[in-house]
Amino acid sequence: MGGCPHQQLSLIHISKVNLVPNTTVTFPNNSVSLTLKKLTLPEALCNDCSTQAEVEIKKGKDIQNIIFLLGGMQGKVTDTHEAFGYIFETSSITKTGIEMFSSPTGDTYEKQ
What percentage of the chain has pLDDT greater than the value 70? Predict the structure, then answer.
């Protein structure tokens, strides 16, 4: 599991959700649930440290735990992963939570 550069996202089918720690949100179409398990924020003076969010993605009895990373030495501004036929992306991880977007894989808009 890693980042998915240049994956297909649909402008029509993009869903947005704000996750806060230890709260479960179910979307899209009630088939996948997301739970923000852990947030790791860097020290204020660390310019090359990563901001991390561990998100549990569950469909039925199947579970994937994915770490989303922003910042760091590479200066990542988005992080994208695929699970259960959906692409999940974030560009915002803060001390209060993570903003997530999702879309079914294989749609027609190429996310750059």
Answer: 79
Who has greater pLDDT, 12 or 79? 79
* Omega prior to 28 cis, within 30 of 0: yes
CA-to-CA distance for 31 and 8, rounded, in angstroms? 20
- Per-residue pLDDT tens over the stretch 20-57: 998 899 875 668 899 999 999 988 788 888 999 999 99
- pTM reported for the whole predicted model: 0.79
The candidate with the shortest Cα–Cα distance to 10, out of 81, 83, 112, 107, is: 107
Q: Which domain CATH number covers 59? A: 2.60.98
Task: Confirm whether 3 is domain-assigned.
Answer: no
- The answer to whether 53 and 39 are in contact (CB under 8 A) is yes
